[in-house]
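Hi F.,

I've been meaning to write this up properly since the lab meeting, where we talked about keeping a consistent format for the predictions we share between groups. The idea is simple: the sequence comes first, exactly as it goes in, then the structure tokens exactly as they come out, then a line or two of notes. No screenshots and no reformatting. I'm using this chain as the first example so we have something concrete to point to.
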Amino acid sequence: MSAAFQLFAEHGFDNVTVAAIAERAEVGRTTFFRYFGDKQQVLFADDSAEVDRMCSYVRERADLKPGTDLGDALALLREAATASGPTALSPAHSAVLVRLLRESIDLRSRYLLTRQQRALRLAGALTEAGTAENVAVLAAHTAMACDLTAMRLAEGPEAYPARVDEAHGLLRTLGASGG
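Output, unedited:
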């Protein structure tokens, strides 16, 4: 995976072939395809394991049972993201990914699909933990919107966590004006 990110950083996504990735990683094309369906999948390969950890955390914290409280469900998802450990990508790889997403509509589409799948899985975990389905679905998609907002606004990968916190903080201001 590191070899692919190095090549993408050096040449851009579209100018890198699977053969070049395999050569840099010192593996054959067959070995590459044993692990990845295509070169796009390299960019999102570890996302599933991260979501598995988050879903497990949500199910283990069933004692919190957000029920019908959207704020509680969002807080549980935020806690799960924090407790599941650092994101799968290093800061350097995250910087490359953000640049590539800005440059390629195809990659943005794939990324949004992975975010949608993540939201569906997290909504399922919340529902299993006792959250009302409508609240679980809205919480998972709202958390996804916070992640996308942070990615768009973060000046670099190191700023991403603070931007996620900022987005969640803005949500807490809904209705706070009393109007």
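Notes:
Residues 105-128 form the longest helix (24 residues).
DSSP finds ten helices and no strands in the chain.

If this format works for you, I'll send the rest the same way.

G.
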